[in-house]
Amino acid sequence: MVGGGQLARMTQPAAVALGVRLKVLAATAEESAAQVVNDPVIADEKALADLRAFAAGCDVLTFDHEHVPPFALEALEADGVLVRPGSVALLHAQDKGVMRSRLTSLGIPCPRWTIVASPADVAPFAASVGGDVVLKTTRGGYDGKGVWLVPAGTPESSETVAEPFRAGVPVLAEERVDYARELSAVVARSPHGQAVAYPVVESVQRDGICVEVVAPAPGLSSELAVEAQRLALAVASSLDVVGVLAVELFETVDGRLLVNELAMRPHNSGHWSIDGAVTSQFENHLRAVLDLPLGSPVARAPYTVMVNLLGGDLPDVYPAYRHVMARDPELKVHWYGKGVRPGRKVGHVTAYGSDLAELRERAWHAADYIRGDIDE
Ligand code: ADP
């Protein structure tokens, strides 16, 4: 696995159980996954020579992020390396413009969109959609960085309109969707086309960062749930995705589904599956990229709530760490081995059972306590 973040770290226990040796290429020995695998390879994840040397010791290459440049992926494939997901599929998770254009040609519902060449193009697009616009850098954004909301009537000289163009990559303009909530449909697909769909979840974002996931999405009609799963399975097969695919969706106030974006790797909206599903997304990602039979994605409990642990102002979280475990022995606590900084994802907690309100209270209590927002 290329990338030494928490996704590679959480893949390691799944590899242990499957009897698979997980090798990790990480940027530094301190990274989340480099701490937990044998002999991590410390190298440059974007340098072709480093990737080639790493791939030589692997049966199959997969990723914990989308940042390996397309030219390097293509060169590895030309060398005969099994790259999963492949470069063609992965491009749709790396470039939001490519993603929008392909999904639109497949008839998958998306927000109205266009590629804008300059700030002067934004107002005409806003007029055509009749409201606010969201501008996005087509490459390199994450956790809401690279996304700007431009209210209707904002002059083209304003900073919000100018800034997205500074990165020097094409800019995607979308209508601002009036959504009731955000959903995510996670599926896993293997090279010979077996696929499984996890229950559709609700994901709650704050300041562009996912803070809470509830599986399954409360109150979602079975029609929309099945439609979301069908949509994700259709994207996986049409783009020939191998591994986990997360399709982030908007549920609009008038009850439609629109695709926001794609991730082709285990995803934050699937972390609940470690404790809450028969087979975790990490295990199914490994099974898929190794072309093994996939495991059941079925939930173990009526509800699972996952809340991200974000760093707060408490530099020493050890007392809080002990407190949350002592207060709630049924809470599952996951730490990523990362230093605490305000707003940084340092772990997550999961609670599962049947009383959704109680599960949310318990999971949020732990997250608020760790961040230092409450002390009892
Ligand atoms: P990132 O790649 O940084 O995760 P996203 O494209 O997922 O960026 O956008 C981040 C957040 O911005 C979304 O979770 C959503 O809350 C909001 N957002 C993105 N696109 C739109 C849109 N077209 N309409 C309304 N809100 C949007």
Summarize the model shown:
With 376 residues, the protein is of the alpha+beta class. The protein is 31% helix and 23% strand.
Question: Can you describe this structure?
Answer:
The protein has 376 residues and is of the alpha+beta class. It has three domains: 6-83, Rossmann fold, CATH 3.40.50; 112-175, Dna Ligase, domain 1 (2-Layer Sandwich); 179-371, 2-Layer Sandwich (D-amino Acid Aminotransferase, Chain A, domain 1). 31% of the residues lie in helices and 23% in strands. It is built from twelve helices and 15 strands. It has helices at 6-18, 48-55, 70-79, 87-94, 96-105, 122-129, 159-162, 222-238, 273-276, 281-289, 318-327, 356-371; strands spanning 25-26, 41-42, 113-116, 133-137, 147-150, 171-175, 179-189, 195-197, 201-206, 209-215, 243-252, 257-263, 303-310, 332-335, 345-353. Strands 7, 8, 9, 10, 11, 12, 13, 14 and 15 form a nine-stranded antiparallel sheet that branches. Strands 3-6-4-5 form a four-stranded antiparallel sheet. Strand 9 (201-206) and strand 10 (209-215) form a beta hairpin. Helix 2 (48-55) runs parallel beside helix 3 (70-79). The mean pLDDT is 96. Bound molecules: adenosine-5'-diphosphate. Adenosine-5'-diphosphate is lined by residues 111, 134, 136, 141-147, 174, 176-177, 182, 205, 208, 248, 260-261.
